[in-house]
Design goal:
Layout lengths: L19 E3 L5 E3 H9 L18 E2 L1 H26 L7 H12 L2
Antiparallel strand pairs: 1-2, 1-3
Helix pairs in contact: 2-3
Length: 107
């Protein structure tokens, strides 16, 4: 199974970020997750508990590019794997095909 790098995971949702933003303390979160945190009346960092001196969210373009690049590479690897596997559909290769598909598709 593929492990998603921790740097791509939102500390609030524990899921891969698609729209990462940074708070005033420098930590990065998925936009909707941190907005919900702030809308709930929280004024502190979900990670450190420190007071956020500003409520603005700054798009983290570096994290955004990295996460999307990871998705692209994963999708490209999957497409290559599927193409290779479907080119050899025999009963003898079925166990290997299923194992490869499972490890490619499941996180």
């Amino acid at each position: 199974a593929t492990t998603i790098p921790d740097a791509y995971i939102c500390p609030i949702t524990s899921e891969m970020m698609s729209d990462p933003v940074s708070t005033s303390d420098g930590f990065t979160y998925e936009r909707e997750a941190i907005l919900e945190w702030l809308r709930s009346g929280n004024t502190t960092s979900p990670l450190t508990g420190a007071v956020l001196v500003r409520g603005d969210l700054v798009p983290n373009h570096g994290a955004h590019s990295t996460c999307h690049h990871y998705f692209y590479l994963k999708d490209t690897a999957l497409a290559t794997t599927l193409t290779t596997l479907t080119a050899q559909p025999t009963l003898a290769t079925l166990p290997t095909t299923l194992t490869t598909l499972t490890t490619t598709l499941l996180p």
